[in-house]
Write a structure and sequence with these properties.
By secondary structure, the protein is α+β, with helices and mostly antiparallel strands. The protein is built from six helices and eight strands.
Length: 195
């Protein structure tokens, strides 16, 4: 008789995560105005998997994000607001997926006026720390569209290595797109000095 696999236990999370300049926290309905600013910006959403959203669509999406505050099963995303501590403004989102046993996937999106100031690196580093040090992940991946040079450069600076270039791998925003797959192992994280 085969014993069915047991469900994984919930992964323990201590939120919010704090960095020198940012608070990474669960979304609130009061974030709506800030989210509308970048969810509705065509330049920001150019390389992310959602379309340009108006206020109603952003509010609908925000209601889903309000539930994405824990990791209790493989396949779930933890979606956190990226708030600038000095201003209280939400300038983006950072995501960590519990992909499978001891494996995660990182994602991020920032408002245009939050880009180029190191916020994405700061938020992503905090999520890597959560994944590797807090949750015990062995491997964390990140995927971006090949034309997204800024994200590819950021992942390289964070210590990810590119593992694959998947040509015309996904139908993205009406056309076939090439994806770049990046990964980092826990040993690479521990030796990077970013902990």
């Amino acid at each position: 008789m085969t014993v069915p696999p047991q469900p994984s236990p919930p992964l323990p999370l201590r939120l919010p995560l704090e960095t020198a300049r940012l608070l990474l926290r669960a979304h609130r309905m009061s974030d709506l105005d800030d989210l509308v600013r970048f969810h509705g910006d065509p330049e920001v959403v150019r390389f992310v998997p959602w379309p340009v959203r108006d206020r109603a669509a952003t509010e609908e999406t925000l209601r889903v994000k309000l539930t994405q505050t824990e990791l209790v099963a493989h396949g779930q995303w933890l979606v956190l607001a990226v708030e600038v501590r000095d201003t209280g403004r939400v300038i983006g989102e950072v995501l960590l997926k519990w992909a499978s046993d001891r494996q995660g996937e990182l994602g991020f999106a920032l408002a245009r006026d939050g880009q180029g100031q190191g916020y994405a690196a700061e938020a992503a580093t905090a999520m890597l720390r959560l994944g590797f040090d807090g949750l015990g992940f062995h491997r964390i991946t990140a995927v971006c569209i090949a034309e997204n040079d800024a994200s590819a450069r950021l992942l390289g600076r964070l210590g990810f290595r590119q593992e694959a270039r998947l040509v015309d791998n996904v139908h993205f925003k009406g056309a076939w797109a090439t994806q770049l797959v990046f990964a980092m192992l826990e040993d690479e994280w521990r030796s990077s000095g970013r902990r």
